[in-house]
Amino acid sequence: MKMNKPKMASEKGVPSTSKVQILLAQLEKMTGDSMVRDPETSRQITSKLLHLIQTQEKTGKEVMSKGTSGMEVILSSLESTRDAQTILNILCILSELLTLGKGRRVGVFVSKGGTGVLLRILISTSKEFHPSEELMLQLHSLLAKVGPKDRKLGVKARLSGALNITINLIKKNLQNVKLLLPCLQVLRVYSSNMVNAISLGKSGAIEIMFKILAPYSKKNTSLLKVAVDALAALLKSKTNARRAVEARCVSTLLTLYMDWHRNDTWHRHTAIRKGLLGCLRNITNTKLGRKSFTEADGMRILYNSSSECLTVRTLDPLVNTSSLIMRKCFPKNRLPLPTIKSAFHYQLDHALASGPVAQLYSQPPGGRTNAHLCIEPLKKVDDVVDDSDDNEDTEADTENDTENEEDEKDCRSLNDDIEKDINKLHPQKSPTRPFEELRVYERFFVELSEDFQDYTFDCSTTSSSSLARTPRTVLVPTAQALSTNDVTTQTSSVLCPPPKDPHYSTPAPLPPPALQLDTLRFSKERNKREEVAQDLSHALECVALKSEDSLNMDKQKGSPISTQKVAHSPLLLEGIAIRCLAGGGGGSDCGSEGAEDEGAVLEVPDTAQLLPLHDLDLYVDMVKGTHSVPQYTEVAYPDYFGHVAPTFREPLLERLYGVQRSKIFQDIERLIHPNDILDKIVYDLDIASCPVIESDGESLKFNSQFESGNLRKAIQIRKYEYDLVLNSDINSNHHHQWFYFEVSGMRVGATYRFNIINCEKSNSQFNYGMQVLMYSVQEAISGRPRWVRTGADICYYKNHFARSSIATGGQKGKSYYTMTFSSSFSHKDDVCYFAYHYPYTYSSLKMHLSKLEAMRTPEIYMRQDVLCETLGGNSCPLLTITAMPESNSNDHVCQFRNRPLIFLSARVHPGETNASWVMKGTLEFLMSASPLAASLREAYIFKIVPMLNPDGVVNGNHRCSLSGEDLNRQWQNPNAELHPTIYHTKSLLQYLAHTQRAPLVFCDYHGHSRKKNVFMYGCSLKETIWQSSISAASSELHEDLGYRALPKILSQIAPAFSMASCSFVVERSKESTARVVVWREIGVQRSYTMESTVCGCDQGKYKGYQIGTRELEEMGAQFCVALLRLKRMTGLHNHQHLLDLESDLIGTQPKVVSSCPTTYVMDEDEPSFLEAVDYSAESNDEDGEADNEAGAGSREIPETPDLRPERPSDPESGHGAWKCGPVASQ
Ligand SMILES: [Zn+2]
Q1: Separation of CA 349 from chain center
Q2: What separation in Å is there between the alpha carbon of 1044 and the centre of ligand 1?
Q3: What is d(CA 183, CA 163) in angstroms, rounded to the nearest whole number?
Q4: Can you list the pairs that 59-67 forms with residues at least 24 positions away whose Cβ atoms lie under 8 Å?
Q5: Are 183 and 170 in contact (CB under 8 A)?
Q6: Where are the beta strands (DSSP E) in 1050-1172?
Q7: Which residues does residue 718 pair with via DSSP β-bridges, in sequence order?
Q8: Residues recognised as catalytic
């Protein structure tokens, strides 16, 4: 049937408004039978209407204006007419109407059922013998226009049979560009529905798309763009992807892509190029696709083309998509390890019946000593490569990126995790243990029964310790007052010439080796030993203290005061177990000979003034009593020399544009140019002779066989690049995050790249401004003993090393993550250390405690008990600190005994060294001479377990104890043998509960690796119920808001503390943590976990800076000050008076207090939201695939995890501070 084009009727002179209404009214009248009976009239009316709309814009507005029925009338006419010309007229009217007015008109059209009408007409038209091409064209144009707005179009089209009409039309009209274009547009919309895509695939849609796209031609580019997008949509279906692979489409796509890459010189068709990559991306979601891609040399092709695109910024989307495809297709590897189980094994006496550890060691190697080096043979337990991600059956599923799934799971579990059992939210009333069992703990509370009758309360008399007489003031650390005078005026000197000792006349070359305790004395290789001794003494004899703040003081040279101190070498250590190297012929005699006194006199820096709590000799003494599973005999320099926080602030690192991409490209290069890769193992704990790998000057030397060290393997990849593998926690096969290792043999000026390749968390603060810590021995002996934030080009991303499902708790197909950083070294022959966070060893703790004890004044009551021995044979200290009673009068002793208790603990997680620094601040404050500290001691009795997991700390674990378990998940049922520190700490608390002396505050110090600032988790019945949406009687909701007081005070006085990050919700996954158990079982309302960031702050005074030990120690001190405030608030009613008083006392932040007096109303706050897990920014690598709705072609999903500048106002620069989520709920 041949039709005329719609004719423009014209009738001039009549106002259009009335005309339109008249026409619509006429049309409405005709709807139904008369429409069929009188096609001529309907043709005329619609033709007039079309003309009006085409010529006068306001007519369209009138038809579409709100409250009118214009669209209904038009649609019902369309449905009732059988006349092709009328239909065409109406389609043209719709086309005119829907072109304008943005999306709203289309929305109206869809909401009135317009798409259904179009589909019906499409079906009926197609049934005609010769369907009108013009009609088909108009129908498809309209469907293409409205389709993306109708989420159900795909389903409607499939059910009505429209899919095949379109596909057949395309097949028949491959040369008819005019008709082909709208058909392809509709096909693109249809294909975004996964079921449609499969159905279309069966009908040959993929082959047709290839006929359109290939071979390369620049004709009809807009058509090609639509075709490529449609193809990409079709290929989201795995069935289609496999179909495409079988039809050898991967190489066709690659060829096409390269044709476009070469010929699109002016980058006018990047959309087509991106579409082609989109096709490849979807195909490679299948295993078959990846295989085909690699076989077709896809890696090299995309690598080369991307490299050529790197210089043109507008081509970034191409590079990013290419990179994503290459990462996906990068063959999965095992970690280069014989087993992922820890290189060290600790034989438990008490066998674990079940659990992951039992599974891991179901057949422990028996019969040997309790602790020994054990290299397990490769077992199936480790078997790793499992990328069977495509399951043939679950086709209709969308292809989520696994990480997004993980994130969703996280979000879901966050809500699922809230404790909903109301019984578990109430304090447990009945005591669980008979008092008889707890009575033994009485000995840890002698202060509660002490009568002080034997004490003389005269300050002039001496006590047992002579050192205790020294009236030394401990400076309360405050990072805010980074004054120069307290540090810089103390010491200042120049480097002194080496003493003329004839024995060491020849200046031996640096570097100083690691402080190997037995080397000097016991090594059999005499020459080597002497050399080492010379090196070391030379290194150390030059030591003189310079002003700590070199930045300032180097310029204004103060008076040179030599502060040298002659000390006996701490290196000559007797009685410590000798590490016998299996490869070196070591035996039982390897400790008996050597020149005893040679090199015994060394000059060491007098850090005493800088570090009043540090003592080098004492440190070594402490190390002697520390027991490690690998029986370490070396002391790392940083722990020996100590750390003085730098006086400069260390800002969060700004991440440069494209860092991650360039790192990933370097990784991909390993595959493209395998011959450039050295793959040279330079450090390997799994071989017995470790670390004896001959240094040839071409490689760095690594070491981490010292307390808290945990490097397992180092592999030189390129001249200046190393892959590093961390050791798992002892008796475990994962928990890699903490690291601490030594490097030497570096070249000055070279930039080294280090990759820690077996990280596990899916995101890291290393992506948001955090740097690693470095300690230079050369700097230390020049008077700057300190850890500094260092490293450039830092990023954290998923790599191609597959994780065993055993180590992921059953999840398959997971990968490890790489943390990469670059560093250069400024001193020749230096020994440098890198760490995840400021190290704080168990030996450091013992040294600090000993120094603290020595500072006790007669006013201070301080006692150190051994709470218990750990599995590894280390003692767990328990401290009691309070003030002595004023006299031994009844009243005073009574006041003494009745002081409320504060119970503190820290470092249950060994990798959270920040917790120890906070604890150090607390302890130093408590022992200090400040009037605030004195008031605090008079107000409370402090019970402190400063290190709940000494074994984990000693052995370089990140999370666990020697039993391979997280001790902070054992509080409900601690086992006396396996978890002694938890068992006995809990017993102490149970004892207190029994004697009605439950502490006023319990707080366990932790470190947080994903969030910034310092914050607290507490327990609130009410807030948990609010969050969990469980119904509870209002009577159950009575709760004293006292639990909010302490964090609130902290948010006012401690600059690093953020109230907004606090949460008081009880989670099910945390039901066996200290916080929840102490709250529920011991009945302590103020039971907290205090989390300190490893990274830095994004609020308050320290906003934009990384956290340092000064800030952490300050936090510990401020915690004490807050307790004093809490005391005053809970003890008296006139708060405002006290605030003023305290402002005077505290003196640090009077402004804050006076400017916001209202913040003291504790109950005004709404409970904070559950903080979303801040994983949102993690590599949205393979994202966007979940999108199942219509209009996929019109959505752009950012593909670079890399790029998320904080300030969107500055999109040009590509720079910006890197901010961590949560995006959703800030
Ligand atoms: Zn922790």
Answers
A1: 36
A2: 21
A3: 10
A4: 59/16, 59/20, 60/96, 60/97, 60/100, 60/101, 61/101, 62/17, 62/20, 62/21, 63/20, 63/24, 63/97, 64/97, 64/101, 64/105, 64/108
A5: yes
A6: 1086-1093
A7: 721
A8: 1091
CA–CA separation, 410 and 528 (whole Å) = 55
Residue 55: Cβ within 10 Å count: 11
Q: Are 468 and 857 in contact (CB under 8 A)?
A: yes
Residue 1144, both tokens: 């005077």
* Omega before residue 1222 within 30° of 0, cis: yes
Q: How far is the CA of 1115 from the centre of ligand 1 (A)?
A: 17
SS3 (DSSP) at 1035 = helix
pLDDT for 129 beyond 60: yes
Dist CA 903 CA 588 (whole Å)? 46
Return the biggest CA–CA distance within the chain. 124
Give the pair of three-digit tokens for residue 393: 């059956």
401: left (phi over 0), alpha (psi -120 to 50) or beta: beta
Calpha distance 564→567 (Å, rounded): 9
| 125 within 8 A of 164, measured Cβ to Cβ | no
The predicted pLDDT at position 1143 comes to 40
* Distance from the Cα of residue 765 to its chain's centroid: 5
pLDDT in tens, 916-969: 999 999 999 999 999 999 999 999 999 999 999 999 999 999 999 999 999 999
Helices (H), 1132-1202: 1135-1146, 1150-1155
Residue with the two structure tokens 């601490």: 740
In DSSP terms, which residues pair with 944 in a beta bridge?
A: 879, 904
Residue of 158, 165, 822, 851 whose CA lies nearest to 474: 851
How many angstroms separate the alpha carbon of residue 977 from the centre of ligand 1? 22
Give the span between the Cα atoms of 202 and 164, in whole angstroms: 11
Cis peptide leading into 513, omega within 30 of 0? no
Instruction: Grade residue 1138 by pLDDT with cuts at 50, 70 and 90.
Output: very low
1119: left (phi over 0), alpha (psi -120 to 50) or beta: alpha
How many Å lie between the centroid of ligand 1 and the Cα of residue 1069? 14
Q: Are 1113 and 917 in contact (CB under 8 A)?
A: yes
Output the CA 36–ligand 1 centroid distance in Å: 78
Q: How far is the CA of 1088 from the centre of ligand 1 (A)?
A: 12
Q: Closest Cα partner for 738 from 700, 702, 712? A: 712
In the chain the first and final C-alpha atoms are separated, in Å, by: 63
Rounded to an integer, what distance in angstroms lies between the CA atom of residue 1107 and that of residue 651?
9
The rounded percent of the chain whose pLDDT value lies above 90 is 55
CA 967–ligand 1 middle distance (angstroms): 10
The pair of three-digit structure tokens given for residue 1012, joined into one six-digit string: 């910034």
User: Could you tell me how many residues make up the chain?
Assistant: 1226
Per-residue pLDDT tens digits for 302-351: 999 999 998 888 999 999 999 999 999 999 888 999 888 899 989 887 66
Buried b (16+ CB within 10 A) or exposed e, 283-304: bbbbebbbebbbebebbebbbe
CA distance 922 to 81: 86
Does residue 710 carry a pLDDT above 50?
Answer: yes
Span from the CA of 908 to the centroid of ligand 1 (angstroms):
7
Compute the distance from residue 800 Cα to the ligand 1 centre, in Å: 28
The tokens of 1163 are what?
């109950």
* 8 Å CB contact between 782 and 1026: no
User: In the chain, what are the helix, strand and coil shares in percent, each to the nearest 5?
Assistant: 45, 10, 45
Give the mean model confidence (pLDDT) for residues 55-77. 84
CA 1089 to ligand 1 center in whole angstroms: 9
**1006 CA distance to ligand 1 middle (Å):** 4
Gap from CA of 1219 to ligand 1 centroid (Å): 22
> Which of 277-281, 342-346, 602-606 ranks highest by mean pLDDT?
277-281
d(CA 1000, CA 367): 48
